[in-house]
Design a protein that fits this description.
Helix content: 40-55%
Order of helices and strands: HEEEEHHHHHHHHEEEHHHHHH
Radius of gyration: 23 Å
CATH superfamily of the largest domain: Intergrase catalytic core
Strand content: 5-15%
CATH architecture of the largest domain: Orthogonal Bundle
Length: 363
């Protein structure tokens, strides 16, 4: 069919639609945005080129005209996506590291740089738009345990950054690769199936609500377990500095799914005191373990799973840090106060996207 605005709007994430009027012209939707692309052959080799993101100035008509212009250049012997015109993976990695040092903690930045420079060296010479999922998977097969987990996460985050920076990429080639196994227990990240199993095993009691809120918000166990009614105003939860690990007040927007877990029907006229009552964490966790039957896991794994899941959804690292209330160089002092206010919308969007993802898993 001919690509139209209505067709673009109806396109599901991960789907691609090819135009019937201009051969090789298509549109592909990632998790949120749709991108117009062109597929063609040059010197016997198939090429993919991203024309641009749907929205001004790119509409089906303007993108179709650009596709026709590019195909005309191809017919004349030119290759719009020739490697000489595209930066290598190594060059983009270095550009990412130069920028990410401004928001990553020094130790984190050093480790990420090591993973990107050392473990992904076999792909450094490839043009960034030619790195494919099979290339990433091949490198991952040569890594083990926690090294593979961290290397995969570092590369995925870098590609998400590159896409948002406007590099000529149709999709993140890390997405869809198998998650490495054998990670250290303290670095456990629950799979989608495991996350859904835990959600479904939670009872309709205070402990079950706490566990589900841990999944949705990414906050610490005691921060959620000791939540008080006076900390909730509308759909915003403010954790006072006295209850946070770093001693900084932290504000978290609550999605509709998160709000539904608060026992609103049981509210007293005057909202005071703690929302939840928990006797023994170990005994209640043991009952949940008996119901869900997962390999050894902890409640803190839900915080790490939330952070990893948001990163996989394309949330930028400094926004993930803002959600988790991590303090790094770019969030200190007066600048930190300004940044927290500036990131409020991004944090809300990140948590909403994660909530929608979790809801889809447990439906």
């Amino acid at each position: 069919m001919s690509i139209s605005i209505r067709a673009v709007q109806a396109l599901q994430p991960g789907s691609v639609l090819w135009d019937t009027n201009v051969r090789g012209f298509g549109v592909r939707r990632q998790r949120r945005d749709a991108f117009y692309v062109l597929k063609y052959r040059s010197n016997g080799k198939q090429r993919f080129l991203t024309i641009g993101r749907h929205g001004s100035p790119w509409t089906p008509e303007t993108a179709r005209r650009e596709a026709q212009r590019l195909l005309g250049a191809v017919a004349s012997g030119a290759d719009p996506a020739a490697p000489s015109n595209v930066e290598t993976l190594e060059a983009v990695i270095e550009a990412y590291l130069r920028q990410s040092i401004t928001w990553q903690r020094p130790n984190s930045h050093m480790q990420i740089a090591r993973y990107l420079r050392q473990h992904w060296a076999p792909l450094h010479g490839k043009p960034i738009n030619e790195v494919q999922r099979k290339d990433v998977a091949a490198v991952l097969r040569g890594l083990e345990g926690q090294t593979a987990v961290c290397a995969r996460m570092a590369l995925s985050t870098m590609f998400n950054w590159a896409i948002r920076e406007g590099y000529d990429l149709v999709a993140n080639p890390v997405q869809g690769t198998n998650r490495p196994k054998g990670a250290a227990q303290r670095e456990r990240v629950l799979s989608n199936d495991e996350l859904a199993a835990v959600w479904r095993a939670c009872g309709d009691d205070d402990f079950g609500r706490i566990v589900r809120l841990l999944m949705l918000t990414g906050q610490r166990r005691n921060e959620v377990g000791e939540m008080e009614w006076n900390e909730i105003v509308g759909d915003v939860w403010t954790i006072p500095a006295s209850r946070t690990k770093n001693g900084r007040t932290h504000t978290i927007p609550l999605t509709s799914l998160a709000l539904s877990l608060l026992p609103l029907a049981q509210l007293p006229v005057i909202r005071t005191g703690r929302i939840f009552t928990i006797g023994s964490w170990s005994r209640t966790k043991a009952r949940l373990d008996a119901a869900v039957l997962l390999p050894r896991w902890t409640l803190h794994d839900l915080r790490r799973t939330c952070a990893t899941g948001m990163a996989d959804l394309g949330v930028l690292p400094h926004i993930v840090e803002a959600v988790l209330n991590h303090v790094s160089g770019h969030k200190s002092g007066v600048a930190g106060i300004y940044n927290r206010a500036r990131y409020a919308d991004e944090v809300r969007d990140a948590l909403e996207r994660w909530s929608v993802h979790v809801a889809a898993l447990v439906e």
